[in-house]
Amino acid sequence: MRRIPAELCVRCKGAKFLCGLTSCPILERFRAVTNAASKVRLDVGLLQGSTPPSVIVGEKGYPKVSLSFNVAPEVVGEQARLYEDPAGWWGRASLHDIINYRSSLVSNFSMYRINDVWKLYEREISLATISERPVLSESKVTGKLETKLKFDGIVMPRGPTIKADDIRVTENPKVPKILDRLINDDVKANDAVLTLYRGGEDVYRVVSALSTGLLGTLKNRKLVPTRWAITAVDSIVGDSLLKEVRDLPWVSETSVFFQGYLGNYFHIIIYPSSFFSTWVEIWYPTSLWAGELTITDLSEDYWGKYGTLDGGYMAARLAALEYLTKIRRSAGVMIIREVTGEYFAPVGNWHIRETVRRAFNNRLGSFQGLGEALDLVQGRLKDGRVKLREIRAIKRVLNQTRIDSFFDS
C-alpha cells in the first residue's frame, strides 16, 4: 500500500483522515479480516463456503508451489461472485470496496509440485476455479490464521490465509463446454488459449485454466504461477491480434480517448501509421510505489519487439489491439497512464485492461495530427511539470522517421 508516515497514523487513529483519504484503510481492512476470521471454525478445523471462483498459484519455491483456493466463509451461491468480479467491479466498486471484498476471502493454501495437475483435476479443485458459477467447498484446516492481507501489482490482493490439509469440492462445478472439450484434448497451450478467447471466454477464466494446468498437451501440463499466467494470456492473445491488424489499412485520422478508474487515468492516442505502440506511466508523488514524480516508458515496434516485458503494458496492449481488430484498422497507439495518490493500494493489473477497454467508448475528439492530440493531453495532465514531448518514447515517435513509415497504407 501507499506509504503513509506512521506518525501520521498515530496522530489520526483512523478518525481525522490526516492522510487525505476519505476513510481509514487500516480500520476497514481490520474489520473485514476480523469478520472473515470469525467465520473459520478453528476449534474443529473446518472452513466452509463458496469460491467466487478464485485461485492463486504462487511462484516462490518453484517447481514446488503454493495453491491458494480462495473461499468466502459461510457464503453460499451467487453472493460469492462479488468477491472476485473484475468486469462487474469496474466503475461500481471503489478501491476501499475491493480491499474489503478481498479481505473477506480466506485463502486455503496447500503445497503442490507443478506436475500434480491430475491430482487437482480428479478432486475437482481445478474445475471449481473455472466454473461459470460459485462452487461450494469444505476444507480441513490446521494451524493459525494469518490475517495479513497480501498485495501484488499483477494479481489481486489475497486475504487471510490458513493451511488446508484437505479441500473437498461439495458442489458440481459448471464448466463451459468449449473449455471442457479442451481439457480432454491434446492441444498446445497457446492454441487452447486462442480457441477459448475466440470462443468468447473472458481472459480471467482462461488465466485460471492455464494456471491450474488444464491447458496444453496432455503429457506436458503443469501448474503455472498466476502472475506468469496473466501476462502469458495477455501476450498470447495480443500477439495473435497484432498479426491480424498489422497490415490492415491505417486509421484515417488522429483520435484521443480517455477513461479513469481507481485513481488511474488513461489518455490513448490513435494515429495514422503502421502499428507502433508507446506506453508512458506517470507516477505522481504520494501515489503507490512513488515518493516523487516518476515517469517510465517503453515502445513496441511493427514486428512486436519491445525492450522490457511489463505486465501492465501487456494488459493495456490487449485492450488496444481488441479495438483495432474491431474497427479493422492498423494504427500507431500511444497510451499515457497517470497514477495519482488515490491509488493507495495495488489490486492487480485487471483494472488497466478494463479501463483501457472502456476508454475506447469515450472519444474526446479528432485532430489534425499527433502533435495537436498531444497538446490536448498535455493540457489535461494532473501536473504541469510533466512535458510529454520531452519523454523519450514520445520524442522517438515525433522526431524520428521509422522504417514502418515506408509501408503503404
Structure description:
The protein folds into 3 domains: 6-169, no CATH class; 185-241, no CATH class; 254-406, no CATH class. 33% of the residues lie in helices and 22% in strands. The protein contains 14 helices and 12 strands. It has helices at 6-12, 25-38, 86-89, 95-103, 117-122, 125-128, 177-183, 189-198, 203-211, 226-245, 311-327, 350-359, 370-380, 392-399; strands at 46-51, 55-57, 64-73, 106-113, 135-146, 161-169, 254-261, 264-271, 276-283, 294-300, 332-339, 363-367. The strands form 2 sheets. The protein has a 6-stranded mixed β-sheet, sandwiched between helices. A 5-stranded mixed beta barrel has the order 1-3-4-6-5.
What's the helix and strand layout?
Layout: H1 6-12, H2 25-38, E1 46-51, E2 55-57, E3 64-73, H3 86-89, H4 95-103, E4 106-113, H5 117-122, H6 125-128, E5 135-146, E6 161-169, H7 177-183, H8 189-198, H9 203-211, H10 226-245, E7 254-261, E8 264-271, E9 276-283, E10 294-300, H11 311-327, E11 332-339, H12 350-359, E12 363-367, H13 370-380, H14 392-399
Parallel strand pairs: 4-6, 9-11
Antiparallel strand pairs: 1-3, 1-5, 2-3, 3-4, 5-6, 7-8, 7-12, 8-11, 9-10
Helix pairs in contact: 2-4, 8-10, 9-10, 10-11, 11-12
